[in-house]
Queue: 4 jobs
Job 1
Amino acid sequence: MNGKDLCQVYLNEIKAENEATRKCLERIPESLFKYKPHEKSMEMGYLTLLVAEIPKWVKDMVEGSIIDFVNYEHIPLSASEELLKHYDKAVDGAMKALSEVTEESLKTPFELRNSGQVLWKSPKLEAIGSTINHWVHHRGQLTVYMRLNDIAVPSIYGPSADDKKY
């Protein structure tokens, strides 16, 4: 399978994950943004923002070659409506970037850095797949936070215990 074909698979995966992810994000109340299930856990608000932003990473890695956490632009954590707009824009951007990327560009390296220090380096094609997996992983974390706060968990890959059809 060539890189462009794999990008089509990635596009389909983003489309498939989008609806469930959006349903999760819609349900997180601002009143729980500071919630942490454990002292070593991230706050629910930060996790929510992370889940909303990761699709933007796909766009940024396809269109550039480096993401450095020290200067990566985040939106301020805000009301759900603004967060959802940011999420929708991130997903649209990722899908557009994947549909327009060239085979040659997919072979070039991508670097994830923190203050200039390389944390991870990979060809863009591999980095895209890992990023989608990372997004789904953090959405899974978010559903645990939701369950711990009696927030209805939406159907993701099948009925949820909170789904009335279950």
Job 2
Amino acid sequence: MSATTLNTGHIGLNVTDLSRSIDFYRDIFGLGLIGAQTEGEHRYAFLGQDGDIVVTLWQQSDGAFNADRPGLHHLSFQAPDIETVRRAEAALKDAGVDLFYDGVVPHGEGAGSGGLFFTDPDGIRLEIYAPSGADTAPAPTAGAPTCGFF
């Protein structure tokens, strides 16, 4: 099988509070609830857009995301343009979410691509970016990609 025939299907995330995470991913990313089991021992939700699942949430964790362990580094969502990223910035600020950097920043010095870097309620590192238009601010980390969360 050729790697060119594969696309990312969806991302599954372990969460500690399913209801809180459903609200967060719906409010910040505009994802719709496609299906869920919110009662009983096995709780989960499928969120997406246009009928396609983008994120699955599984309430089967305690504690918070640990960036010091092997596994997910961060989850990134590409927006069609920088204006969409700026709207997401307003939604994040309205929700009281802290950003890693001061607003929209480029992926590196001289890069046009860039965006916002933050965490979900369980500490999972997230990014919303656009391919261009972020070159109006300096890169916050010299000599390393911004999405490295250094």
Job 3
Amino acid sequence: MRSLSVLLLLALVSTGCDSGSGGDEGLLEITDISPGNGDLVALGQTLKVTYEGRLEDGTIFDSTDERGKPWYFTMVEGQVIEGWLDGLVGMEVEGTRRLVIPPHLAFGRQGRCLSDGSCPVPPNSTVIYEITVEAVIGDVVIEVVAEGVGVSADVGRLVAVGYTGTFVDGQVFDSTELSGQPFVFRLGTGQVIAGWDRGILGMKEGGIRNLVIPPHQAYGASGVPGSIPPYTTLLFRVEMVRVDT
């Protein structure tokens, strides 16, 4: 695929670098609010979650309700705060868990501050999350927006598509709108990431799909230096412009 140039800025990626809060004081508190389906969350999995994060005084500082969409991330160091990694392991999928996370496992003495100078999470704050694990994402998630007509895009066919790629926070990292030209490739031959070869298969001209592509079918543990961080889930909206017969 074409080169990418925009860095991901994840709200949850901050792991509290230089996160000491005067010592590693306080323990992670875990409470299961509702049971799940029996499948257990493990390190290395890519998860789809909804959550609400608040301070001890009840102030909500982040929520998937406010974002209007779920969050996708992989259970590896550097993707989320340490309290999430420690607190979600062993949780049942489709269950809900409350985590009370002390500062040294959250955003530390730096807090979580924005470029405008505000700090939704002040330094040395204990944070409370209620998290529902909706699913473990093991394959491309395909949402068919429009079916299209005509010839199906099968393995080996030359196709032309228009697309917009975003990170899970909605930030656009690449789009054919930048060039004004569709992207042309031969399907199923390794010319694009595996998630595209799987997610675009069977599309017809005029068809539109939304794709959620987990890291192991995108750029994996390496990412794309300067563009795609390691273990990043990617979202694409793809429109089939042409399928060569």
Job 4
Amino acid sequence: MSNNSAKTLFDNKTYVFMTECLSTNDYLLKLLKKKSYQEGTMVNSSYQKGGRGQRNNNWLSEKGKNLTFSFLLEPNIELSNQFLLHIITSISIFKTLLEINIKNISIKWPNDIYVNDKKIAGILIENLVYRKFIYKSVIGVGLNINQANFGILNATSTINETMKKHNLDQILQIFKSIFNKEYLKLNSNKIHEEFDFYKKNLIGYQIEKKYEYNSAVIKGKIIDVLSDGILVIQTKNSIIKFNFGDIRLV
């Protein structure tokens, strides 16, 4: 990543819009197998039939009502620092929601965005690695905008939170602008400030919550997140470290 490319990350780059696809991440990864594309290439779809979240959870979205897109990065960072991509993407969505006057936003580790304790956005990051360096990264974002009904799912949207419809393209432009700025911080000292912002806004940070772990329920509070994304929780009797998928907030 160069400063020049980051400042204009999405400008004059390949932009693919589809009314429908299985998964924007899958589609972009298939494009990359056929030929080389510039950093900032984006695939956007008004409907994903097979959208995926972390750990292959489905991302359900009504046609034409939400943002579901993926974009290409060339971060050139060590694999051990891959969680930094989760942090800057989570914060970019967080700040995008702030820009449209959404309140009570929080982050659920590792990278779901919640508003008033309901999920409003999710992130899926898939990296291409060579010699322990991430040379390409496909970042997928699902952000609930104008969908009002989620059935039994614990989810919300910008229309539910603000009681008004939003223009999808305008919100996407806000995200692009904010992500440009966050991406510039990736290899700078300012990334420490982003780490602090991320932790401060985590659900359960310094607050006791219940978690499901090994088919049992434990109580504890998040006291840290390490640079590789490991979650550190302090229980009554010990300090325990958890990797992705090890633990679930209940």
